[in-house]
Specification:
Blueprint lengths: L14 H10 L9 E4 L4 E3 L13 E4 L2 H6 L3 E2 L18 H12 L2 H4 L2 H8 L3 H11 L4 H19 L4 H7 L5 H12 L3 H7 L15 E8 L6 H9 L7 E4 L2 E8 L2 E10 L4 E8 L5 H11 L6 H8 L5 H7 L11 H10 L5 H15 L1 E2 L11 E2 L3 H7 L1 H5 L5 H16 L10 H9 L6 H10 L12 H7 L8 H8 L6 H10 L4
Parallel strand pairs: 2-4
Antiparallel strand pairs: 1-2, 1-3, 5-9, 6-7, 7-8, 8-9, 10-11
Helix pairs in contact: 7-8, 15-16, 15-19, 15-21, 17-19, 20-21
Length: 504
């Protein structure tokens, strides 16, 4: 028998916030709550493809076990037991959808099906059965199709060497690439290149960068690119980031490869162009994923705006700036270091300290595409650990803050701490809070921008307390947190709007 006296959540869950996330089918909430539907007796994940039930029929639970204990049975379409972070005895289309997303991000380019299965909480044999049942193809075949499509586009749209295209598309062997391409398209890559020569593309890059291509990334409007640049401009890391006009540039690295990227928006066509310049082929799938995270390209602005429409404080701010996004981070460790440097100093002061850190411990890049481009890679966790606390203190930091930088770097380099959107949110936040010198504000900031938690909210931030106050100088942290309950599950967006408000 279902025991549901009301439609609210339990264990701290806010029912209205959960329902808003359910309506949006926001993938960032998958695994964070489960919906029990009173009218059917079934519980689901927030990404379930089934028709959304009425609010009055919904009850929300923090775990699948809690939903089952209340008398609900698992949905056969979304398989809630297969949600992220839970062991799955079996999987369905929802699991396959998640697997496809991981493959699109390049999961099989670096590792095999076994590690993909581990990330899904399944056995490799189970993953293969699911792919056969739902797609009629193996995971390897699906990954090969993704790589071949990418390669075909690069052959037609760029003048990269075929060997470079092979690597950029995710193939590990030129021979396998040629064989797979010829099998799929009935002609070798060289024939496509000979028939469809890429047009000469104007480029401001140095001839030292033969790998020079543009990625076309779509987004849902509206998108206020100027506002995004304004946020980054005030927080630039000297040597790593440069903004010229309406263009954002930064240095990046992945898997031992360094590159430069240049981002510019075409709002009328709902496109963000990301130019990649490197001396050797760069893994494009991973870069595209990270670019989407930096600029919050996967947000649903219309859904978020509708959520805030009736709020007397946030509603007018959203209406004034409907295209505001939450700026992310290319690298979570870099963002964490930047957050620590910003403790108890101005935004400008934090940028100055970050520039000193980069100049002393970052990796110099030579050559660069030009004078208005980054000059260094941000220091790695290992480089900061090697520097040590006494040396870090000479940057102009209190010794306690230098120790905090070291603690974070040590946790990442030597103790398995991961600061990317795929990391388990609650566990990562607990790990961060356990590091001396890192408090709730820093954790919330990292969760918002690096871990991509759309509901992260630093209620202790003095700027937010002041911006949210209707009367008086500021709200207390407790009062602000209470006020922010109505903004769930997108309190992070509310924070951005308050930070950008005229009062702030």
């Amino acid at each position: 028998m279902l025991d549901i006296a009301h439609s609210e959540g339990i264990d701290g869950l806010d029912g209205n916030a959960c329902y808003a996330a359910l309506l949006a089918r926001d993938t960032r909430f998958d695994g964070r709550f489960f919906t029990g539907v009173k009218s059917t007796g079934i519980y689901c994940r927030p990404i379930c493809p089934a028709r959304t039930p009425k609010r009055v029929h919904c009850h929300f639970y923090p775990s699948a076990a809690a939903a089952e204990a209340a008398g609900f049975r698992a949905c056969l379409r979304c398989r809630p037991e297969a949600a992220p972070g839970t062991p799955a005895a079996s999987g369905t289309a929802a699991t396959v959808t998640r697997a496809l997303r991981l493959i699109q991000e390049g999961a099989l380019d670096r590792n095999g099906v076994g590690q993909l299965a581990d990330r899904l909480g399944l056995g490799e044999r189970q993953v293969r059965r699911l792919f056969a049942a739902h797609l009629g193809a193996s995971p390897e075949a699906v990954g090969a199709t993704r790589r071949l499509l990418a390669a075909n586009q690069l052959l037609r749209d760029t003048d990269l060497a075929i060997a470079d295209i092979c690597f950029a598309a995710g193939f590990k062997s030129l021979r396998r690439f040629n064989d797979a391409f010829a099998t799929r398209y009935k002609e070798p890559p060289s024939a496509v290149r000979a028939r469809v020569r890429a047009k000469a593309r104007p480029s401001a890059a140095s001839p030292h960068f033969p790998f020079d291509i543009k990625l076309r990334l779509g987004f849902r409007p509206p998108f206020d690119w100027a506002l995004m640049l304004e946020y980054f401009r005030s927080r630039l890391i000297p040597g790593v980031e440069v903004i010229t006009g309406s263009t954002y540039r930064r240095s990046v690295s992945f898997g031992g490869h360094a590159a430069f990227i240049e981002a510019s928006a075409d709002p009328a066509r709902h496109i963000l162009w990301v130019r990649v310049l490197a001396q050797a082929p760069f893994p494009l799938a991973e870069l595209a994923t990270r670019a989407r995270q930096i600029f919050d390209l996967d947000a649903e602005p219309a859904v978020i705006a509708a959520h805030f429409a009736g709020d007397p404080l946030i509603g007018p701010l959203v209406a004034a700036r409907p295209g505001q996004r939450v700026p992310g981070a290319y690298d979570g460790f870099e963002l964490g270091i930047r957050a620590i440097l910003g403790q108890q100093v101005s935004v400008k002061g934090a940028s100055t300290l970050a520039g000193r850190l980069v100049s002393r411990y970052g990796t110099p890049l030579s050559p660069t595409p030009g004078p208005d481009w980054p000059t260094h890679l941000f220091p790695t966790a290992s480089q900061i650990v090697t520097a040590g606390v006494p040396a870090l203190s000479t940057l102009g930091l209190p010794s306690s803050r230098a120790a905090t930088l070291f603690n974070l770097a040590d946790a990442v380099a030597n103790h398995g701490l991961q600061l990317d959107p795929g990391a388990p949110l609650d566990e990562t936040c607990r790990h961060l809070l356990g590091l001396k010198g890192i408090g709730p504000w820093t954790v919330s900031y990292i969760a918002l921008r690096a871990l991509r938690d759309p509901d992260a909210f630093p209620e202790g931030d003095l700027g937010l307390q002041k911006a949210a106050a209707t009367y008086g100088d500021k709200l207390s942290a407790k009062a602000l947190l209470s006020l922010a309950q109505r903004w769930k599950p997108w309190r992070g967006y509310a924070a951005l709007h308050l930070w950008s408000s005229p009062s702030e």
